[in-house]
Amino acid sequence: MKLKKIxxxxxxxxxxxxxxxxxxxxxxxDRPSNNFSGDAVKMGVLTHLNSTEESFGEALxxxxxxxxxxxxxxxxxxYDSLKLMQMGLESGDIETISTYKSVANYLLAxxxxxxxxxxxxxxxxxxxxxxAVRKEDTQLKADLDKIxxxxxxxxxxxxxxxxxxxxxxxGQEPPAVDIPKFEGxxxxxxxxxxxxxxxxxxxxxxxxxxxxxxxLAEMAKRLNRNIEIVQIETGSRAAALSSKLIDVVFWxxxxxxNDKIPADIDKPEGLELSNPYFQDNIALIQLKKDK
Length: 291
Known about the structure:
The protein is an alpha/beta fold. Helices cover 30% and strands 24% of the residues. The chain has two domains: 12-126, D-Maltodextrin-Binding Protein, domain 2 (3-Layer(aba) Sandwich), CATH 3.40.190; 127-279, D-Maltodextrin-Binding Protein, domain 2, CATH 3.40.190.
């Protein structure tokens, strides 16, 4: 199945106010700048939609101070795609990438220039992955939560995690996934970014694959609804959802186990989150040092 790809859309006026406001309603203009010294490490991060680079950096600074880290502070730079972030690392625009353990394993298996970094402050951060829907779509959220609970209870979710994340052979791509179609059934449009392989994955031939797509195939069967996958950019997630270009989007994460990161740091107004379906720890990647 080929993806329907949409161009990056501008955030609506409704969301503009949110994006210019930090968590808790504090205006970005009122925030102090990060107190990073000249030797701060420039770190690539996929765009967070309810914070700025400065406010996100403050959260990281708080985490490092709490753990007593002796390492240099990190200065975040937002990217709208994983590809651009990797290019930034290889060109020297940034010195490290913040991603997840499963994604780091995927990237290191395909690029021998990369290595992971041990960082006690960041490696302990765990995020919960969810679906996001429009706030008014209460029935859709209820349906998603119900199906997710069923898949947890009967072992289907654990099996998909094992088959598409845990036990994937090093360097091998997970297979493309065919999502069933039901004649005359309602269609749900789901946005994917391709920026979290092997979770949210788009193959070189533009076919959807990976864990999230396998999950959608199973959910389509249980919901008896058609699912259309729409490729979007990470920075356009909320705008695509609010403008009804899509009905559901992956790539919404909730910080877990660390109160130094606001729970709504990647949740603009007008969105509701499903119950979580996966969790993973933060991993940092850098270019290998010359021996």
